[in-house]
Amino acid sequence: MTLRLTTRWSAIFTLALLGLLGAIQFVPYGRSCTNPPVVAEPAWDSPDTRAIAQRACFDCHSNETRWPAYARVAPASWLISYDVSEGRRIVNFSEWQRSQEEAAEAAEAILEQEMPPRPYLLMHPKARLTAPERERLAAGLTKTVRIRAETSGQP
Fold it and tell me: In which band, very low, low, confident or very high, does the pLDDT at 23 lie, cut at 50, 70 and 90?
């Protein structure tokens, strides 16, 4: 009797959970999975810096995001859309003409292994950086930000 009752509640719970997951698919936030146009890229210090940044940073810090299939399924779509919009707001390598106030701290975040963030690396192993790549990217970004400051007077 108890086993049958437990099985019944498990089935009801499972159906309710599936119904909830189905219902949240109709919440529109985080479904665009589109990229605005690239307006202006940095004057990169080297092609190597750009290549490493493209592999490890561009999904969140550019208008060239590669949207995985799960980015269209709630609730993952909500988190991914939020992370990308925040990343683009902080530093956007595709809109380099606008103020990039936090670009100067990018090298430090990379060296301290704050970027790319660990949860992102779990799903994107190609974004993992070796110690030498991390050092090259940090040095290259420092030079790239310095080029920006020298040529435009912007931070």
Answer: low
On the 0-12 / 13-18 / 19+ scale of CB atoms within 10 A, 53 is buried
* Bridge partners (DSSP) listed for residue 95: 40
The residues spanned by each domain of the chain are: 28-152
pTM over 0.90: no
Contact yes or no for 106/145 (Cβ under 8 A): yes
Per-residue pLDDT of 42-58, as tens digits, reads 999 999 999 999 999 99
Whole-number Cα distances in Å, 110 to 25, 90, 132: 35, 14, 12
- Quick check: helix, strand or coil at residue 14? helix
Q: Decide: 115 and 103 in contact? Cβ < 8 Å.
A: no
